[in-house]
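Quick illustration, no need to memorize.
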Amino acid sequence: MSDATQNGPMLAADGRPLKASLRRALRRQKMRALMLIAPLLIFILITFIAPIADMLFRSVENNIVSDTLPRTVEALDDWEYASGETPGEPVFDAMFVDLFIAAERKEHTRLGSRLNYQETGISSLFRQTGRDVEDMAEVYEDQFDALNEIWRDGAFWAELMGDPDWFAEAQGAEDAGPRFRINDEMEDRLPRTAEAYRVFARFTQNEDEDNPASERPWPLVHAMLYADLTDGAAIDAYTGFGAEELTAAKEAVPGFEAPTYREAFLEVDEDWASVEMWGTIKAYSGEFTSGYFLNAVDRELTPHGIETLPSDQSVYLKLFWRTIWMSLTITFMTILLGYPVAYLLANLPMRKSSLLMILVLLPFWTSLLVRTSAWKVLLQQQGVINDILVWAGILSDSGRLVMINNQLGTIIAMTHILLPFMILPLYSVMATIPPSFVRASKSLGATNWTTFWRVYFPQSVPGIGAGSILVFILAIGYYITPALVGGTDGIFISNRIAYHISSSLNWGLAAALGSILLAAVLVLYWAYDRIVGIDNVKLG
């Protein structure tokens, strides 16, 4: 064998270095394995990871205020809540424009509902003002119309404010026409009018599917034209289309009736003078907020800062603690009741253990709703259990136990429902414990108790761990059973999450509550891993 062969790399049959060929083959195996599990990974990503990520995002997302009231949010930067005074006219001016556009888009009610979570009454305030904001602008529209009827003509406005090439294409178009483009010269000379007309034109094309060249613009456009002309719009040297009408309008606007927007808003509702209301808008004007998480721990973000809710309104921390300790109690009860059953299943003869296993699995063949409703019949004061206790003389008829619509009812019903989830992991572990270990212990002189405690029980601990994790995680997220048998005192935090998702539609708060619950489960899971060790958990 030559030195080159001895010192060179070992080659495969195809002449390539053996290491490179092995790496290539291993890479191919990994790719094939990945392709096999790709459908499952995609399914988990779509149905599990993505919803959790969306929930986490919703718990801090707050762009509805900044998206709906962008001009107002910017104007409020110069206003301080600590001043104790209502914002100045520029803020009311910006609110007028934002609210007019939001009302046209039907977004003002959704904004009001969002802010109403923080301060009661804002929802009705925005709803009422959204109906009246058009009247504020019609004051200017009517005066322009009285000055010259040309201001009623949609085609005149389109030719005045639109790009000449766009207007030439849009004229006579039967559909919405080409995408609107503003006249650059008008944007320089009449900036607020151009902005308002652009919003109107895009809305008309996208939402109404109409041609702006044939539609009369919003009264908002007239109001903004008044604002531009009053602010000294540079139209004196303008000689293009509509120059004569603009010049006449500029000379006439000093005589227009022009109430301030502050007066107009206060005429609609005196609550627009509330410093607290404006402070709430400013406090929640950011794209992200901690408000939902603060509400979830009985705090709130106010114009003053973070404040603790009054005791009669503090419910969520109490519900979190109740959910955790009741879930732990239910887990302990399933261990207490399930361990002997699992022991019998593992040690009885096959025929008897099979019959007992059928009884354990029987609840799975019955609807959860039916099982929970059955407990309502059993536990009520005139129910089967109380009737038997009274018949046996254990209780008097006037001393019947209250076991429904409270925490006891929830614990009893959920222990029964979750018991199979404890028995099955315990049984699967106990079935693998060799009987010879027990016999050897007894042959060495150990008592039955010593044999059980020092030989048998330590080997069954992995089953207890697996069953405990399974039962606890299922219990902490249950909401059907507590809702039916728990009453006011026996509901879980999951019931409030379901309420905010389906009834109050406060998805941000529901997401924050769910995120905290998820974090609590992960912390408990980490603590269990540190104390017991997740590697010791076995399902058989």
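Residues 321-536 form a domain with the MetI-like fold fold (CATH 1.10.3720.10).
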